[in-house]
Design goal:
The chain is mainly α. It has one domain. The protein contains 5 helices and no strands. The chain has helices spanning 2-16, 28-48, 52-88, 94-125, 128-158. Helix 2 packs across helix 3 (52-88), helix 2 runs antiparallel to helix 5 and helix 3 (52-88) packs antiparallel against helix 4 (94-125). It is elongated. The relative contact order is 0.11. The model is unreliable at 9-26 (pLDDT under 50).
Length: 162
Amino acid sequence: MRRRVLLAAVVVALLALPALGQAPTLLPDERVGRIIEALLIWRLVDELELTDQQIARLFPRIKTLKEIRLELGRRKRMLEADLRQLLRQRPPDQEAIRLKLAELNDLRVEIERRRQQVLRQIASILTIEQQARFALIAERFEAETLRLLEEVRRLVEQSPRQ
């Protein structure tokens, strides 16, 4: 079973990379998302010793978590850019800044609510021992994933456009 899952993770990762000599067909966020998804699935299967049935039920939820994480990053960057622009205005529009801050805080609350809902669904699929292992993996992995996404975003922004 592990060989099949490892093979599937490798295939997903390879599909996320462009073929040699060809222009990428996926946007950087899409490639990054697929690679992150493959790594998380591989790590979960390995560390939690998931059954085939659990794997099939977890895949869609893992994808949802990834999409939530990417959505937060995209929307947060847009709101932060808006805030920077508002702060550059002279005199600063206090009410516009207050509204943008409220929007940013609302986004964080909404994303966390959705994330917790998916994590509860994941927990319902796992045994209690797997839930404990997942809790340990999830915290570390999400921190690593956020750091990786930020690094990739910076690289993409710095790279020359074609």
